[in-house]
Design goal:
Helices cover about 25% and strands about 25% of the residues. With about 90 residues, the chain is an alpha+beta fold. It has one domain. The chain has a two-stranded parallel ribbon. Strands 3-4 form a two-stranded antiparallel sheet. The longest helix has 14 residues. The protein is globular and about 35 Å long. The mean pLDDT is about 85.
């Protein structure tokens, strides 16, 4: 693994909770939330935008995308990947 990649693995935290249930730090340098926005209803999306506006540090970035579904739809859980990052093991 490249040195810079190892360094970033020590600085990244992936949480097992949903975005709106997670206990997040007061200030966020970056947020990556891929393929999830379509699963939130309009009220929940407003909560997400508010959370980002309040907690992203100046110069912070949020990366989100809107991939189908375009309306809230339940998604079944499945294990697609597993990786060790720092002291934690993550399953996706």
């Amino acid at each position: 693994m490249h040195y810079k990649t190892r360094e970033l693995h020590q600085r990244v935290t992936v949480l097992p909770e949903g975005l709106l249930e997670a206990v997040l730090p007061e200030h966020l340098g970056a947020v990556v939330a891929m393929n999830i926005i379509g699963h939130f209803d309009p009220g929940e999306r407003r909560q997400i935008w508010r959370l980002l506006a309040e907690r992203l540090m100046p110069g912070g970035r949020a990366v989100l995308n809107l991939q189908p579904p375009g309306e809230p739809v339940p998604a079944p859980e499945f294990r697609g990947a597993e990786v060790q990052v720092g002291r934690r093991a993550y399953e996706g």
